[in-house]
Amino acid sequence: MKELNKILFSNEENFIDWISKSEPQLVKDIHYYFFKKDLEQSYDSEENKKRLSEIEKYYQENISSIYFSLTKSEKVILYLMQNSFGWLVYDRVENLTKLIAKFFNFSPEEVSIAINSLLNRYIIFNYKRLNLYDFLYCPPVFLKYIFEYLRNDFSNNNSIEIKPENILKENYIQLIAGLISYIVNYSPRSSENNEIHKIDLEKLLEFFSDFAEKDQIERIIKKLTRFGFFQKYSNRVIINKFLFDTIVKLSVNEQLFIIFLYEFLDQLEFHKPTFMAIKILSHYYLIYKKPLPLKELFFYYINAELYFTPKNENKNLLSMLKHEEIKFISFVRQLEHHKIAKVIKAGDTVSLTNDSIIMNEPAISLLNDFDLSSNYPQTTFVVDSNFEIFAEPEIRPDILFKVALISEPKTIQLMSIFRITKESLKKSLAYGMKKEEIIEFLRVHSKHKIPENVEKSIIETLNEITFEEFKNYKIVQISAHFSSFIREKYKNSIIEIEPHTFLIFDENILKNIEEYCNENKVSIKYITDFLGEKYHQLVTKFQLEHNIKHLHTIKDFLNFYGSQHLGNILKVDNKI
Amino acid sequence: MVERDKVIVVQPDKTILVDTHHPQFEEVRKKLISFSELIKTPEHMYFYRITPISLWNSAANGVPLDEILETLQRYKKYDIPENVIDFIRKHYTTYGKVVFQKYDKDRILIKFFDEEIKEKVEKLLEKYILEKLPDSILVSSENRGVIKTELIKHLIPVKDLAGFDAGNKIEIELRNITLENKEFKLRYYQSEAVYNFSKWKEGSGIIVLPCGAGKTIVAIGIIADIKEYTLIITTSNESVKQWKKELLDKTTLRPEDIGEYTSQSKNLTPITITTYSMLIHKRGKSDDMRNINIFTTQNWGLIVYDEVHILPAPIFRMTTSIQSKRRLGLTATLVREDNLESEVFTLIGPKIYEFPWKLLEKEGWIAKAFCYEIKIALPDKIYSKYLNANQRSKFRIASTNPEKIKAIEFLLEKHKSNHILIIGHFLSQLQEVSRLFNLPLITGETLAVERQKLYEAFREGKIKALCISRVGNFSIDLPLADVAIQISGIFGSRQEEAQRLGRILRPDSGNAFFYTLISKNTLEEDFARKRQLFLLEQGYKYEIVEFSDLIKGKTVSNNEGDIYNYINKIS
Q: Is B281 exposed, middle or buried (0-12, 13-18, 19+ CB in 10 A)?
């Protein structure tokens, strides 16, 4: 509960601060209304703050009688405000009353009376804005006290409980791990003449086709590229060497956010009204434990849309509504498509009047910054005698990523299966694993004893490798015809990171190879270090954090979108 | 919902994974085998796969659908993917929707128990339909096999209750004391298999038993149970001899009852044994397969297909025309390299009995096998030649590493009290080994008589070691062999691997040892890895040792099969 309060009312300070500074007359009026003491109007904001605190206290102490004195329509208005961050936007107040009346089965007169009554009792306020639509506002300091009462009245009393979909169902973490593993192990395919270097995307998609839809995989790759985990460099897709370091350091929430939510929001270009609508949707289940009728979400959606609409832009409310409805339905379909929410349909198509919508668990959790790591409690995997590693869906992501790095993906499904090979061990060294770390890691996390043949073989492979550390390397590319000689001759001291392209650690070996190439008139190409620091910087930590953080609290959210609702305001009053 | 204490994970691709250390493992494996195929058995995790055929097999064997679903639900750790449940329902319920019954002498009645399938089948079989009746159609008996094959292509299995023609009768009983004067009775799993076949209402089917478990004995049990003329088709002339020997030894059949139908002698007798190659043999390209009519020249009551998993495609075509004969397929694995499993299901029949390999090993019916890969460095000079060679030559250079001779010498010396097979791919290499160690060599060139003599001598223990080329890959029974040394080979084929190991997995020997000699740091290692994976996935122990360590007598681990301990013990 405390958690929920923090999520819902984190911006309460804004209101008190702002009003105590800029509306001395209003503070005086409210105070008079509640305490009937005719105080002088004060220009000292500290004094006004004190007066407002007294009011808050009064409100808190008398909340029960205040709430029960409300009419049904007044309660509905507060309920709507509660859900839409406290505000109800209007162009003309008659339109607002009509809208509410229509959506929630009242007569416009009833709604009008309710609004006026709430205004008169200083429960809600009227914000007049300069360029944008005005709105009615119920400050969080008040809302938080009636919140519990509203919740009781509007909560789920249906016997059938519909639950949001579980986080494990989509295997997001498994997919990232699988992709990393796939790309590290099978990365760039090349043509014989060394010109085309790229991941065979079709093949990759085919590999994952049992476990995820092609477009989902494509979207994930796009996202990971966007955050710099993969890079396009001279026509090839490569993995950032620091990918592993970076991704392991992220929290589970952040890892999920990258491929799950960010993508969706990005597609909507972080469009503010839609973002607010999903924010409302995410809160709704937390509070009322039931799906939200689509009709009601549409109301909030328009409300949010209007919030950012300049005055006089809409001449005709009805045509605007029709236009918004089309946009809204497509937005709902997007939510479904991205598996962010599920529409509970009465028929085959989405119906605004009959259907309701429920957000899926991962989206709710991410939007509210719930710690998701408890969904991944497992720290062990099975290492089998055929060199396969079995990781269950609940395995801790950082452990899974490490597994993905040292082995090849076999199948990414409910149970992800990887296989350790000589090549995979070597490649993992190129991506920052350390020799001594590998066997220790397997020992610590192996659920059953590592089969002797496997342990022995790994140790043997690692012992054969002559380079100690991944530094001071050169990258050279050798013509296809001769590269197999180099590959075999120096198999334990160099790493082939892509066909005919080798990481060489030892100056003497480099010299030998150069001599060999000179003797045989083989061309040798020195490749710019595309694994190095330079590309690491592209994973802009700040960009990532910045994008994740603002999703989590309303306060951050409002900061992110600017403070328009406070900014260009002419007046706050209890009159329309 | 996650039930962390449960044992199985059902994957969307229809594999089922089972942790062998889980307390419910023993309980659940028995249930899984009734509707899925056991694919891999490495140390910690068993793989089962649900296939249309595995589901038809279970429907044919009367395992209720609810029981299958209930098993999955009861033991599942994570929710079962919906596509898997749909798949099970769909394929399980197709079995029994199309039933063959005998209508009269020349016609078969095809009955339908599903409107949708009826429409589909009627469309597919348009040209075969003689008459349409309500809910059924009449077709000619001649087309029984063709129709079944046609339908299986569309994943429609047929429940064939059209019966089978009885063959001529023959007197045959199992002996209690064999000709070799040993006590004889069927082992419990063998008589279970015989019993399952005899009560089997469709009359034809497949028995799956690992190498060395006595498939021949099961077939003999079935022949003795049916007591009708029988045609046995097997893989090689040696194997023909083997069958004959076993039949004489373990039954009351007289030598004149059993005939060999081979290139050397063409005897049609109540029990006739022939080979696949004999049946599909043609004199010239335009010639017909002239031996094909063997199926119809005698009134057979049973046709036995040995090693069904390598049954050649032309035999399938022949088999379509003899669907009114009872058929028995024998194999160690239903997995075929050519994916013709559904043909086997349709034309031979469903799986009637299976007994898992590892359980037989555990119960001591077959030898416990230890596999070792011995790595031997190529001499420097040859290694640089190797590095500069092309792929093809590389394989040859690595395979014929002269240092391997030292390893063979070492192993021959250490295993001097055992019976050793040396198996190789390159003839020149085998000849050299044969010459150096004075061992007899069997190749494709070796005359059958000579070959037979050598096998006999080996069986009787007169020869301790034998070099054999690829010819040794098919089922010849060499009960005394308990050590196999593979010095080179075409790697990668699962069949070949199972066969080679099968050579030495005979019950007379206690422990069996399988050595593979590999040139270090060559592509032989990569090839070997594939083979190694297959064996590991079959649940064998597999150890990799360096030859240089081996001769130093260095001890690394202490498990039972440990090569160093073993070698130290016997030396």
A: middle
- Give the up-direction half-sphere exposure of residue B396: CA atoms within 13 A in the CB hemisphere: 10
* Interface test mutation site (partner B, options A210, A414, A421, max chain B beta carbons within 10 A): A414
Instruction: List pLDDT tens digits, range A226-243.
Output: 666 665 554 455 566 666
The answer for B5, left when phi > 0, alpha when psi is -120 to 50, beta otherwise, is alpha
A335 and chain B in contact, CB less than 8 A: no
Structure tokens at A472: 């001071």
pTM above 0.80, yes or no: no
H helix or E strand, kind and range, residue B30: helix B25-32
Superfamily the domain B361-570 falls into: P-loop containing nucleotide triphosphate hydrolases (3.40.50.300)
Query: Of A268, A267, A337, A339, nearest to A304 (Cα)?
Result: A268
Q: Is domain B188-355 in CATH 3.30.70.20, yes or no?
A: no
Are A352 and A325 spatial neighbours (Cβ–Cβ below 8 Å)? Answer: yes
Is the Cβ pair A386, B81 closer than 8 Å?
A: no
Same fold, B188-355 and B361-570: yes
Minimum distance, in Å, between the CA of residue B40 and any CA atom of chain A: 10
CB contact under 8 A, B537 and A386: yes
What gap in Å lies between CA A173 and CA A211, rounded to an integer?
13
Tell which CATH architecture fits domain B98-161.
2-Layer Sandwich (3.30)
DSSP A23: -
* β partners of residue A503: A475, A495
Nearest CA in chain A to B538: A386
**Interface mutation vs chain A, best among B521, B529, B533, B536, most A CBs within 10 Å:** B536
Mean pLDDT lowest among A26-30, A260-264, A437-441 = A260-264
Q: How far is B80 from chain A (nearest CA, A)?
A: 10
pLDDT > 70 in chain A, percent: 82
ipTM of the complex model: 0.77
Within 13 Å of residue A532, how many CA atoms lie on the same side as its CB?
11
> Are residues A221 and A179 in contact, defined by beta-carbon separation less than 8 angstroms?
yes
Disruptive mutation site among A378, A386, A422 for chain B (greatest number of B CBs within 10 Å): A386
**Which residue did the predictor score with more confidence, A199 or A151?**
A151
Measured in residues, chain B has a length of 571
Dist. CA B323–CA A144, nearest whole Å? 81
Contact criterion met (CB < 8 Å) for B77 and A392: yes
Q: How big is chain B by its Cα radius of gyration, in Å?
A: 25
A388 CB within 8 Å of a chain B CB: yes
What are the pLDDT digits (tens) for A242-288? Answer: 667 777 777 787 777 777 777 777 777 777 788 888 889 988 998 88
pLDDT band (50, 70, 90) for residue B567: very low
Sign of the Cα pseudo-torsion (A43, A44, A50, A53, in order): positive
**For residue B472, what are its two tokens?**
């040794």
Domain ranges of chain B: 3-94, 98-161, 188-355, 361-570
